[in-house]
Amino acid sequence: MKIIRAKDYDAMSRKAANIISAQVILKPDCVLGLATGGTPVGTYKQLIEWYNKGDVDFSEVTTVNLDEYRGLPRENEQSYWSFMHHNLFDHVNIDPNRVHLPDGTNLDAEAECRHYDEVIRQLGGVDLQLLGIGGDGHIGFNEPGPAFDLGTHCVDLTESTIEANKRFFEKKEDVPRQAYTMGIKTIMQARKVLLVANGAGKAEIVKKAFFGPVTPEVPASILQMHPDFVLVGDEDALALI
Ligand code: F6R
Predict the structure, then answer these.
(1) What is residue 145's predicted lDDT score, i.e. its pLDDT?
(2) Average pLDDT of every residue of the chain
(3) Domain spans in the chain, listed from the N-terminal domain onward
(4) What CATH fold (topology level) applies to the domain 2-234?
(5) pLDDT digit string (tens) for 136-159?
(6) Does the pLDDT value for residue 165 go beyond 90?
(7) Catalytic amino acids?
(8) Which of 29, 34, 181, 198 would staple 234 via disulfide (CB 3.0–4.6 Å)?
(9) Ligand 1 geometric centre to CA of 137 (Å)
(10) What is the pTM of this model?
């Protein structure tokens, strides 16, 4: 595990974007695993800026996102498909055919999850997986509890995740109750994993996940076992380690 300290959110975002750009420069046809949530927005902004300057080219890149709400159509403003388009894809030269997210409108969970795993398998796996971390240690929508050996699967969101995500919806009742998520097994198979964390609100969980025992009760703790795991955090998130 490698830990990179950044002084604030902007510096964290630049460092994370640097690592992603390096990946794209070294392997232009790489597969990037991407995340939504508040933390990576600055990273995506930075990548867009460097794309506009001509420093990074996404024309051969393929992306697979971590997760999508079950039941939300792509066009819904709160779908992760919309999030990724607003925050990154619409602003860079990525080929729309190379963008993959679980299909929230396929309500046949088993078929959709199997299909998504097959997409990732056919792409040859993920070269670099970007992650955020939830206050309870979740990565993707892998909440505390389930085993470490799952591929893509359907999850019931916990109360704390619904609570955390309601800021993106008009009201709490609008937050979908289920999601399709890459499993921990899929995440661990990525050749490189980059986790970004910022703010004092993440300090406790960062300490618990990366300096505590490896346990399914803290899903992110498994990353301690990944051979190429980088944590980039700002001072506040890394304050306790
Ligand atoms: C996003 C995702 C989640 C978030 C996590 C942190 O695709 O799967 O695991 O990374 O909930 O969210 P933020 O960055 O909003 O604190």
Answers:
(1) 87
(2) 96
(3) 2-234
(4) Rossmann fold (3.40.50)
(5) 999 999 999 877 899 999 999 989
(6) no
(7) 67, 136, 138, 143
(8) 198
(9) 10
(10) 0.97
